[in-house]
Design a protein that fits this description.
alpha+beta; four-stranded antiparallel β-sheet
């Protein structure tokens, strides 16, 4: 089979169905851009989890005199020195604990003033109203329940709080958005496949006389099908290239420049260029194989060879 013939037929097919080819390119580009974006979103969420879960603490808040009067968990009174020693000793024995830091009521009051000094409530608080606490760094943030089971409800303990729970709500929201993007991507892929099939049908119908002559002279089925398959693959590959461009431009303008989120949101550890570049070969391969396979199976039905 001569490559020149195949290339010439690809050009003829793309020119004859220019509008539908453009629609295929756009739909493939949008669907694969969403596909790449969802993969990058998953990487971003995993990166944020690794960054933030490594920093979260479990806090054991101890009863003070104010809690003894108003909180049922502190009905037996404020925490005693012996109770604090026992809590610390039990924490030291636990294998899930990596590090324990004690925060006095004065330190808690100082930190509160630094963070919420402008709040009207801050002026009415006094150091003795703030709770002492143990800030516990776990070796595995998933082991929070071990601490909660051991200390929740103990004498002198007002509550056990896990910062990971707050982050789980955030990551749940991000994962929900990611799945929504994947659902839109799936619909766009279906649209792209339908357009590819229709484009192949129109192209095969417009060239039915040529293919009929080729059958009469003994051309093989693959020889007849090859230009149509290559035509779909080229259109898909162009769409894949556009999708890659979308991802690169989005990474550049959203994170590094333009919106510059990496500078404005210093607390977020954003994915790097390596995460984007590793997704591009997968997108290009998908953009090439998906239209080619769709055209191949469509031709078996619509092009009798």
């Amino acid at each position: 089979m001569r490559a020149q013939f195949v290339l010439s037929e690809i050009g003829v097919g793309l020119r004859r169905n220019l509008t539908m080819t453009f629609a295929v390119v756009v739909s493939v580009a949008l669907s694969l851009a969403l596909f790449g974006g969802s993969l990058l979103m998953s990487d971003q969420v995993n990166t944020m989890k690794g960054y933030w879960y490594d920093k979260v603490n479990v806090s054991i808040f101890l009863c003070n005199k104010s809690d003894a009067e108003s909180d049922p968990n502190c009905a037996k009174g404020a925490v005693t020195a012996d109770q604090k020693k026992q809590i610390l000793a039990d924490l030291d024995k636990m294998t899930v604990v990596q590090k324990v830091a004690y925060e006095s009521s004065d330190q808690a009051y100082k930190h509160y003033k630094e963070q919420f000094g402008d709040s009207p409530l801050a002026s009415s608080l006094t150091p003795d109203q703030m709770q002492e606490s143990y800030r516990i760094k776990l070796k595995d943030p998933e082991k929070y329940q071990v601490i909660a089971t051991a200390f929740d409800g103990r004498d002198g303990v007002q509550s056990v709080q896990d910062q990971k729970g707050i982050l789980d709500n955030l990551f749940g929201l991000l994962n929900g958005m990611n799945w929504a993007a994947r659902a839109v991507m799936a619909m766009m892929l279906v649209v792209a496949l339908m357009l590819i099939v229709n484009t192949v049908r129109v192209s095969a119908f417009s060239r039915r006389r040529e293919t009929g002559i080729m059958r009469l002279v003994g051309a093989s089925g693959f020889y007849i099908q090859a230009p149509f398959i290559a035509e779909a693959a080229v259109a898909g590959l162009i769409g894949g290239g556009v999708a890659c461009g979308f991802l690169l431009v989005a990474r550049y303008f959203i994170i590094d420049h333009g919106l510059a989120l990496s500078e404005k949101l210093n607390l977020i550890n954003f994915i790097g260029w390596d995460a984007v570049l590793t997704k591009l070969p997968l997108i290009l391969a998908t953009s090439l194989l998906m239209p080619a396979l769709a055209a191949f199976f469509a031709l078996r039905k619509y092009l009798k060879v």
